[in-house]
Design a protein that fits this description.
Two copies of one chain form a homodimer.
Chain A (H helix, E strand, L loop, with lengths): L7 H8 L6 H12 L4 E2 H11 L5 H13 L3 E4 L7 E4 L7 E5 L5 E4 L2 H13 L3 E12 L1 H10 L11
Parallel strand pairs in A: 4-6
Antiparallel strand pairs in A: 1-3, 2-3, 4-5
Helix pairs in contact in A: 2-3, 2-4, 3-4
The complex binds zinc ion (ZN) (4 copies).
One zinc ion (ZN) binds next to loops of chain B.
Chain B binds a DNA duplex (30 and 30 nucleotides) through helix 2 and helix 4.
Chain lengths: ~160, ~160
DNA sequence: ATGATTTTGAAATTCATTTTCAAAATATCA
DNA sequence: TGATATTTTGAAAATGAATTTCAAAATCAT
């Protein structure tokens, strides 16, 4: 029973009547230590480096717990497989996604958020979350297109 | 071979070396005549009122053609099933989605689009498409919550 | 410990979407 | 026109991400 740093996730589990287990703690820890935009596969692989017996289902379940309790949030990025990132109270960022190479670049714009609130208010909505995704071609891929002079047809594989 | 109005979709098929068929024309026509945010199921049902023998696969395939050629665009709205809407050159709108009743409200903001372009430019991206989705509770559902004084737990079913 | 409760992981299931493939429709051209 | 090549269709099978099932294992409260 190694203590996995003072992750408030365990606190939270207790509050919800859930148990803090070796698996959950490990998954939460690895998730919090990883860079954003991980797929479940990727997270599962990393987790298994420490404990190879952890099942996919548990990773999915824990990720859901993390999401429900505000530590993680799932993003779709135009693909079928979800990617997860950290969520920090009050902070928010959105994404530029390259349709060719799959690169994901983050940005934040208080101006846009402000305009969003105003629109929501006008329409009578109370907003809890939002997603702003800009799809296009990144600088690198634009340069490559320039080189070949051809339209690049391959789809982003995110591999 | 009834002519289904001057839908440029047929023109486009020809340009791409694809055939204009009874099924494709019918699916495209029904799609273009329908309100936005249809699911594939819903479109398929409507199409089958005219021709009950049209298969799901063909609806999916035609919708993909429509999307690739710029007539339709697919949206996800936080659910697993896609919804399709018309796309008009140069026009764009985004969405407010009620997490309780599933209501979808459209909006457009030139100010936001402008800020988006500026961000993309700064990051070296060339943007072709974007999605801005605001998730929250609509006025009606907020009113109901007020009435009961309780948090409403049901998820949007979009039924 | 004892027994109740929760969690786990492998396998099965779900469900939207895609693919397969043989039959049907359509185009090409002699 | 008829013969042949190509494309499209639709039913059924396959895919693939995510969820559920369930018996075994872990954990909790006496
Ligand atoms: Zn790129
Ligand atoms: Zn991010
Ligand atoms: Zn509502
Ligand atoms: Zn719309």
């Amino acid at each position: 029973m190694e203590k996995t740093s003072g992750l408030p996730f365990q606190q939270l589990l207790k509050e919800r009547g859930l148990k803090s287990t070796r698996q959950r703690d490990e998954i939460a820890r690895v998730f919090m230590e990883s860079a954003d935009h991980l797929s479940v596969d990727e997270l599962c692989q990393r987790v298994r480096q420490k404990n190879p017996r952890i099942g996919y289902a548990t990773v999915y379940r824990t990720l859901k717990l993390l999401a429900q309790s505000g530590w993680a949030s799932a993003r779709q990025f135009g693909q079928r497989t979800a990617r997860f990132e950290h969520r920090t109270e009050g902070e928010h960022h959105d994404h530029l996604i390259c349709l060719i190479c799959g690169k994901i670049v983050e940005f934040a714009s208080g101006r846009i958020e402000e305009l969003q609130s105003r629109i929501a208010q006008k329409k009578g909505f109370r907003i809890f979350d939002h997603k702003l995704e800009l799809y296009g071609h990144c600088a690198d891929c634009l340069a490559k297109k320039e080189m070949t002079g051809k339209e690049v047809r391959e789809k982003a594989t995110n591999e």
